[in-house]
């Protein structure tokens, strides 16, 4: 499996580029969004890749981040979404936009992609909404808003302290997902805390949706 390519960009077409890696040219298909962010011909370039194997063809698809690559793989797991439709969705929304659409159940945003109709967009939301938190949390995490847990050793004569209460694991996952969507840690922590105050037992996906609604512009 070819997971990443780094070399020199020597040619670009409407939907693919040719990258020279030590004398071997690789054709890599990319979305419009990825294409727009690539350097000029003759310059160094690196892309994460996913290899699609067919009986009569092998195709490489390129992405600037691992999160985008993971969304491509998940989108293609939905019946009716092929590589072309997946790239159209990612090209229209970007990885962050796909995350937001799934977290909020916004199928109309997915339907804006070329070649993706309302029914297919709704199917994407239904089949992938529970997988959104795991992908959104990729690439690092944000410290828990309540601070690190400290374990103290009891000394003679010292009263045993009660163990700190366990926090909902969805909290740190939601904070990480919101950070990867570009929200400031303080804003994300405030929204997550407020959402958990309303319902402390929220699962990750529900907590992210609730926090995003609180962070949405008012008016």
CATH class descriptor of the largest domain: Mainly Alpha
Low-confidence stretches: 139-167
- The number of distinct helices, counting runs of at least 4 residues, comes to 9
Second-tier CATH architecture of the largest domain = Orthogonal Bundle
Gist of the model:
With 219 residues, this protein is an alpha+beta fold.
Q: In words, what does this structure look like?
A:
The protein is an alpha+beta fold. The chain has 3 domains: 4-63, OB fold (Dihydrolipoamide Acetyltransferase, E2P); 66-131, DNA polymerase, domain 1, CATH 1.10.150; 137-150 and 166-219, Ubiquitin-associated (UBA) domain (Helicase, Ruva Protein, domain 3), CATH 1.10.8. 44% of the residues lie in helices and 17% in strands. The protein contains 9 helices and 5 strands, in the order βββαββαααααααα. Strands 1-2-3-5-4 form a 5-stranded mixed barrel. Helix 2 packs across helix 3, helix 7 (169-180) runs antiparallel to helix 8 (185-198) and helix 8 (185-198) crosses helix 9 (204-215). The longest helix is centred in the middle third of the chain and has 22 residues, at 83-104. The chain is elongated, with a radius of gyration of 21 Å. 36% of the residues are buried. Mean pLDDT is 80; it is low at 139-167.
